[in-house]
Amino acid sequence: MLVFVAMTVAAGWSVAAAAAPAEAPGLPDGWTATQYGPLGPADRDLLVKVRLAGLWEMPAGDQAQRRAADPKVREIGAKISAEHHALDQATRSAAVELGVDLPNEPNSDQQVWLDEIARAEGAELDRIFIDRLRAAHGKVFTVIAGVRAGTRNDLVRDFAAEANAAVLRHMSYLESSGLVDWQALPAPPDPVNPAEVTWLGGLGTRGGHPVFVWIVLAAAVIAGVAATIRATRTR
After folding, report:
1. How far is it, in rounded angstroms, from Cα 181 to Cα 33?
2. Global pTM?
3. Is the model's pLDDT at 213 over the cut of 90?
4. Bridge partner residues of 32 (DSSP)
5. What is the pLDDT of residue 190?
6. Which fold is adopted by the domain 37-183+200-234?
7. Angle made by CA atoms 188, 192, 195, in degrees to the nearest 5
8. Considering just the CA atoms, what is the radius of gyration of the chain in Å?
9. Phi and psi at residue 33, in whole multiples of 5°?
10. What are the boundaries of each domain within the chain?
11. How many Cα atoms sit within 13 Å of 153 on the Cβ side?
12. d(Cα 118, Cα 112) in Å, to the nearest integer?
């Protein structure tokens, strides 16, 4: 589905009018009806966050590709930049289909990180690039998994699966550098008390139960590891 959407946008066809969201009776405040199903605030937030990620990680990857001291970091920068260009196209295509407005420049925090990378040299550049991007990917990874678990929109579901796989690959690339400062990353959330889990009720609530979200995350990790192994064997 996303491939078709990207092709229509690349060809210059206007699809926004046919997919323009509209308020519909029976939907909560902030939700709109689309041809792909209801579109909620979390769905729109996901598209915005992935777009913002690309707006700073593409130039950051370009900087690392050109200026990093470690050849491994230069290779990682090139991969992340190229893959974010493809993901950004998918993000913009989905946004056109769903009538979601996207930002066109990094936010203030992301601009600070880009400035840090631009000022740094040598091994310091390598460290800052790896640390900043690994922390950022960890944050957006949980957002994507939550939306993938609970969205009611078919197009957003497909997009979230694509974005989840891309972000997982990027975390694996960054971690392969051996430069990640694990102590600086947020600790995992506390485990869920099994006595408090109500499977039927939890899975039926909007957004999905946290346990279900972690199941999705675990499945994504397994899929990403398998993809990485296949990619390595083909070289």
Report:
1. 43
2. 0.72
3. no
4. 39
5. 84
6. Ferritin (1.20.1260)
7. 165
8. 19
9. -95, 135
10. 37-183+200-234
11. 27
12. 10
